[in-house]
Amino acid sequence: GRDGRPTTRTVNFIAAHDGMTLADIVAYERKHNEANGEQNRDGHNDNLSWNNGAEGETDDEAISLARSNDRRALLATLFASRGTIMLTAGDEFGRTQKGNNNAYAQDNA
Predict the structure, then answer these.
(1) Contact assessment for residue 23 and residue 77, using Cβ atoms and an 8 Å cutoff
(2) What are phi and psi of 85, to 5 degrees?
(3) Is the pLDDT of residue 17 over 70?
(4) N or C: which end of the chain has fewer CB within 10 A?
């Protein structure tokens, strides 16, 4: 790296525990935190996500295929990166929070 440390000392990730899941990154363009009881005001608004043509769940096979391809491409990029990878549990299986980027605040117990 530019600061003298090797690139293998980096931590690389696509999604973290305090934001959208990997599946949600390719299925939602905006947060959906309505279940949190704060009128969708909580959580950050800049998610760097895209929905491939439909917001949220869809029966459209072409959109579902595009999302699946995007998830695989993102995971392949992560696994090919130098350094330590951080993968949130369930992202490899398509776990979703239905667009909620602040699931910690959900009251659904």
Answers:
(1) no
(2) -95, 150
(3) yes
(4) C
